[in-house]
Design brief:
single chain; mainly alpha; 5 strands
């Protein structure tokens, strides 16, 4: 659609898209009839390979789609496997209204990660299967959406996971070997239980049926990322983006992998060079493009405010007060009450009374959250820090260790490093410096977001500055 009305010629468009052949056409709908013109064009020679016009009842649209797919394949001299030919010839549903609900659900689920969009997409799949209970692809997508609502903590009930499993098996029951059903079951194993091998097995089966399914490649990349298979993950994300450049999640995840998206780019200057000046300049430039950064806090692993690294604590407090969020939260990485950040800043300022008051406020918030989410590793890590701030040594170490046990690096290579850093911080706060340095040394030895330049400027580690082992560690990894 971006070339609608363009003055560019076929060769230029082919070069821009990086393709040798283009499918081009137009669709007109009049009442219950549809007129479709489709043609296959050799972009390099600007010559037609094949063209056809169709004028049919709207109910024949799937048959037209199948015919176009087979004619294009023939024009490209492509050899279709039996599975591919079967997939092309099978109609997903006889109910066009159900199909429209399904397509809309895909669009919603791929363009955002907002709760309201995913809940609406789920309702659309429910409408689709109400209209056609035998619509297998709609059941499969419904399964994925149930799992996503569960993993993003919008509904952590066992009932939600049970619905995900039931919908996936309903899809299998209706169409054995359906690629989308294998993908949905893989998502269920992966995000429902963090069980990687059965998830990858299902994704592999999905690719045998639909080898160019961008969504499957995206989920494969996410598993590889959590296994610490970084280059494979980047390759899989890249494949997903190439196959479907309009889907937001693969592009954003690929950006995460390269650590070059908005705030990440600013904090790279801190991790790479320890440069608050360059980080500040980057954030200021971003604010001109996307507005205020106050309500887009990044992980508190780096601390939300550059002023903290510059030891300008009054400015840090002022910046913190501008953020309207009470809790800085990422579904996979951290849950940090604003009170916990206030406590740290006041502690660095030597205002112990306010420091203790805010640590206690953070404690109350986190303990309440844990009543509903006892297995949330993020909460245990932050609660350990709050307890350490209150002088509750044993409780602090217990909670921080529990966070590590619930989210070990061996299980999820990226998220797990956050809990190890929580444990390091707790050890340092309660005066067990050698134990804290052990954890930091481990973090520096593996891929992650802790770096020597960052450790040098972060006041969190000021009590280690004179420790010989800390200095030796920095020199070792410089």
């Amino acid at each position: 659609m971006q070339y609608k009305g363009t003055t560019k010629n076929i060769r230029e468009i082919g070069e821009e898209l990086g393709v040798a052949t283009l499918v081009e056409g137009e669709v007109q709908r009049v009442g219950d009839r549809v007129r479709i013109r489709a043609q296959l064009i050799d972009a390099r020679a600007d010559e037609h390979v094949w063209s056809e016009q169709y004028e049919r009842q709207l109910t024949d649209v799937f048959a037209i789609q199948s015919d176009i797919a087979q004619r294009v394949a023939a024009g490209l001299r492509a050899t279709l496997t039996d599975a591919e030919r079967e997939a092309i010839q099978q109609k997903p549903t006889d109910n066009l209204e159900a199909h429209e609900y399904y397509v809309s659900a895909i669009e919603l689920s791929e363009r955002s990660e907002l709760e309201e969009d995913w809940r609406l997409a789920l309702r659309l799949t429910e409408k689709a299967v109400e209209l056609d209970p035998r619509f297998a692809q709609a059941w499969a997508l419904q399964s994925e959406l149930h799992t996503l609502l569960y993993v993003f903590r919008w509904d952590r009930s066992e009932e939600r996971l049970a619905k995900a499993k039931s919908a996936a098996f309903e899809a299998f029951e209706l169409r054995a070997g359906l690629g989308e059903a294998h993908r949905a079951l893989g998502v269920y194993y992966f995000l429902g239980f963090w069980d990687y091998e059965p998830a990858l097995d299902q994704f592999s089966l999905a690719l045998k049926r639909t080898p160019n399914d961008a969504r499957t490649w995206y989920f494969i990349a996410r598993v590889q990322e959590r296994q610490g298979r970084w280059q494979e993950s980047v390759d899989s994300y890249t494949k997903a983006v190439e196959l479907n450049p309009r889907a937001a999640a693969p592009v954003a995840s690929l950006a995460d992998s390269y650590a070059l998206h908005f705030e990440e780019k600013a904090w790279l200057y801190l991790e790479w060079q320890g440069s608050t000046e360059k980080a500040r300049a980057e954030l200021e430039e971003q604010s001109l493009v996307v507005g205020s950064v106050e309500d887009r806090p990044i992980g508190y692993r780096w601390q939300p405010f550059i002023e903290l690294f510059e030891r300008d604590y009054s400015a840090a407090l002022e910046r913190l007060s501008l953020a309207s969020l009470d809790n800085f939260e990422s579904w996979a990485f951290y849950f940090v009450p604003k009170a916990l950040l206030y406590a740290q800043v006041y502690g660095l300022m030597g205002q112990s009374e306010r420091e203790l008051a805010y640590y206690d406020s953070a404690r109350a918030i986190l303990e309440t959250e844990l009543e509903e989410n006892t297995e949330d590793h993020r909460l245990h890590g932050s609660l350990g820090i709050a307890y350490a701030g209150l002088g509750r040594r044993d409780d602090a170490i217990r909670e921080a260790k529990l966070g590590v046990e619930l989210m070990p690096v061996e299980r999820r290579a990226w998220e797990g490093t956050y809990r190890v850093e929580d444990l390091a911080r707790v050890y340092v706060m309660v005066g067990e410096y050698d134990a804290g340095i052990d954890q930091l040394d481990y973090l520096l030895s593996i891929p992650g977001e802790i770096s020597v330049p960052l450790l040098r400027i972060d006041p969190t580690w000021d009590s280690l500055r004179g420790h010989p082992r800390f200095q030796a560690m920095l020199a070792k990894y410089e």
